Amino acid sequence: MPKKTVLLTGASGEIGQALIHSLAEDPNTSLVTVDLKPLPGNLKGKSIHIIGDLLDKELLSSLENQYQFQLILHLAAVLSTTAERDPLLAHKVNTCSTIDLLELATRQSQNQSLPVKFLFPSSIAVYGLPDLETKQKIPPVHEYEWTNPTTMYGCSKLYCEKTGIYYSEYFQQLADQEPIRLDFRALRFPGIISTFTIPSGGTSDFGPEMIHSAAQGKPYDCFVRPDVRIPFMVMPDAVLALQMLAEVSSEKLQNRVYNVTSFSFSAQDFKDLAQKSFPGAEINFTPDLKRQAIVDTWPADIDDSAARRDWNWKPRYDGQDACQEYLLQNISKQYKA
Ligand code: SER
Predict the structure, then answer these.
(1) Mean pLDDT of the 204-209 span
(2) Is the CB of 80 under 6 A from ligand 1?
(3) Rounded CA gap, 83 and 74, in Å?
(4) In this structure, which of 26, 58, 123, 263 has its CB flanked by the most CB atoms within 10 Å?
């Protein structure tokens, strides 16, 4: 069987690290990873790792000249809180690098006469609810509702979704002959919690930060109100969702952008879970009104029935008990050493 060449950007980030573990297990995959940072020691040797900036045109042309990719997982991005502090940087990293990679994938689809699969992590940040009253009363949000983001991160993710669809469906639509186009697929992720890594620069970070602080016996000051509620999933389910969407045949896909979720938690739910798992954990609430206002525009629940219908999506860690099981199994071990 010929080897499949996979490009993973943002490889040193949280999802990137988790994905390398499973992608590197497949003997038929040759994995090329890119990040501004080196990979942590436990991932060294699992991929051909290139340290570099995706905005560097020379880096992109050398990738294009050296490899023919069949699958691109483009994870590199500036997260929502960091993006608000430097919107222009977020625009460059989140959208310019995506366009450049979509172009690369388009050329490689044509060279190989085979659509390159382009997997893109989007986010609940593409949603923008007008006020708390609306957030509290609406049912779980579908992909086509409330897409009025109020953050640069959300705007850039929504733009990349639309552009990915454009490159898949309409690129060179005026040409005499229909070109071979890439195959773009995106997931709108909720907040993600990993037991092995801690997020930075996101606005859903209050959940994972609280759990990791409690596991380390450190007090935590939560930056949102106790009632602030958004959807979450644990890292193994985020990896599972990306893998399932990468593998499903295109005939089954009625969308190119899918919500995925596992459970919705308020900051108080995280506090309860943390204190149940780590009795005595000290958790206080000192809301940062501006960061909290961002989370208030994100839905409390999203509807992922399209993913369940088209590619049998179902999280393995569904609900509070399963989440607690995953967190407890691993997190305590991590900080005991
Ligand atoms: N976790 C992301 C953030 O908080 C949202 O997708 O920026």
Answers:
(1) 95
(2) yes
(3) 18
(4) 123
